[in-house]
Amino acid sequence: MNMAELTAESGKALKGLLEAARLKPHDIVVVGCSTSEVMGRKIGSASSVDVAEAIMAGLLPVISENQLYLAIQCCEHLNRALVVEQECAERYRLERVTVIPHVAAGGALAAEAMKRFADPVVVESICAHAGLDIGDTFIGMHLKRVAVPVRLEVTKIGAGHLTAARTRPKLIGGERAHYPTRS
C-alpha cells in the first residue's frame, strides 16, 4: 500500500468536497474511515495505524488552510462517537463523553486524531456541515439536515469506497414558495 498515494487521495477528496460545499470558517467536516476497507479488507478486521497516519496527513492541512473543524467518527464499538478539538466542542456546545479511542475500539483514524489534534475531546454526536465517508462507515447520522450527495473525482481511498455529502437548509413552504438557485 502506497501511503503517499493515500495522503494525496485524501487531500484531493477533501478539496473536492470543500469546492462543492462552500463552507465557512469554523464549519465542521465529519470523516468516517475504515482503514481495513482502505486496505481491501472487511470493515473492522485489519485496522492500520500507518493508513490512518497517511489519511490524516492529507486531511489536516486542508482543514487548517480553510479554518474548519474536523470531526473523526469512531467505530461502532464506541457508538460512532466523534473526536473533535475542544474549541469545536465549546463553540457548538457539544456533549462530551468519557472514553479514549484506540485502534481496537474507536478505530485507527480516531486514535490518530487523539494523537494529532491539539486538544482532542470525544463527543457523542454532531451536526456537521459536510462529510467524507471512506469505506462505508455511515456518517449520515452526523450530518445536518438536509444532506446532499457530492460526486467527487476521487471515488476510492485505497480500496475503500468513498462517498461525500454537503448539507443545505430545508426547503419549506410548498408550491407557492420561491427558493434561491443554490442553497
Shape: globular
Computed over alpha carbons, the radius of gyration is: 16 Å
At the fourth CATH level, what is the homologous superfamily? Hypothetical protein TT1679
pLDDT averaged over residues: 95
Give the proportion of residues in helices. 25-40%
Low-confidence stretches: none
Largest sheet: 9 strands, mixed
Indicate the CATH architecture.
3-Layer(aba) Sandwich
Number of strands: 9
Count of individual helical segments = 5
- How is the CATH topology named? Rossmann fold
Quick structural summary:
This protein has 183 residues and is of the alpha+beta class. It has helices at residues 3-21, 35-38, 49-65, 86-91, 108-116, and strands at 28-33, 69-73, 82-85, 96-97, 120-123, 130-134, 147-150, 156-157, 160-167. It has 5 helices and 9 strands; from the N terminus they run αβααββαβαβββββ.
Question: How does this structure look, described?
Answer:
The chain has 5 helices and 9 strands. The chain is of the alpha+beta class. The protein has one domain: Hypothetical protein TT1679 (Rossmann fold, 3-Layer(aba) Sandwich), CATH 3.40.50. α1 runs parallel beside α3 and α3 crosses α5. The chain is globular.
Topology readout:
Elements: H1 3-21, E1 28-33, H2 35-38, H3 49-65, E2 69-73, E3 82-85, H4 86-91, E4 96-97, H5 108-116, E5 120-123, E6 130-134, E7 147-150, E8 156-157, E9 160-167
Parallel strand pairs: 1-2, 1-6
Antiparallel strand pairs: 2-3, 3-5, 4-5, 6-9, 7-9, 8-9
Helix pairs in contact: 1-3, 3-5
